Amino acid sequence: MLPEVTILGHTIALYGLMILIGVIIGTIVALSLARRMSIKNEDVIFAIIYGIIGFIVGGKLLYLIIELPLILQNIDRIIHDYQLLISLLSGGFVFYGGFIAGFLLMLFYCRRYQVPTTGMIATIIPIVPLVHAFGRIGCFFAGCCYGIPYEGWMHIVFHRSLVAPNEVSLFPVQLLESAVNFGIFLFLYYSARKAKSATAILTSYLILYSIMRFIMEFLRGDSARGFLLGLSVSQWISILLLIIAIFIKKRHSDSISDVVDKDFLDKR
Question: Which residue windows are transmembrane per the record (predicted)?
Fold first, then answer.
């Protein structure tokens, strides 16, 4: 749609700009929640930084794993073509790889610096779908993660995209996923303010997002996502995370005190 804009003589990619806006707003929201969780502001900021680093590395790594067969087929071209190598390393990203790696690195920070893990989870998890929602708007502007051919209500047509097919009516899957992510954020934010346990917040996110992502994958038109037995890699990961989340939620459904910081409850 509009991959970049020029501001004060500088060309800025809207995809990156939307993610930056999401991170800034998400950090502000996380800091507001941190006060209720007895988490220091600096710990929240550093945990977010750790999470972002893990997100970038994990998202890129899973993308490269999915594309490994294609990479091996063209390894000679990639080795001798500098631009192709740069394109491979700079383009392509899988959300689930980023989320899992970012979450693990955030937990590592908490363990390393003795920060209450449950409080941090209840602080950070609600902003994940918020940042993701802005990211999907960025995808819409860039034309990546585009939808299936569709000529019904609210269809979109790209005219100068470098990623999506141009002059073809497509389903606006990026905008739909963004809207659902905003809805998930509002639910998790409300849950965090109502003193829901960290386990409840985390499992709610995993259940809601995995179901949504499983469905959204059927509306995606980009083929470079990896498929196995008719389902995309993200759909298989969605199934796995859904099963894990339901198991954890059921196991902890009768216990709140063991997953919520006492300091947090005392402040209520």
Answer: 12-33, 45-66, 86-109, 121-149, 169-190, 197-215, 227-248
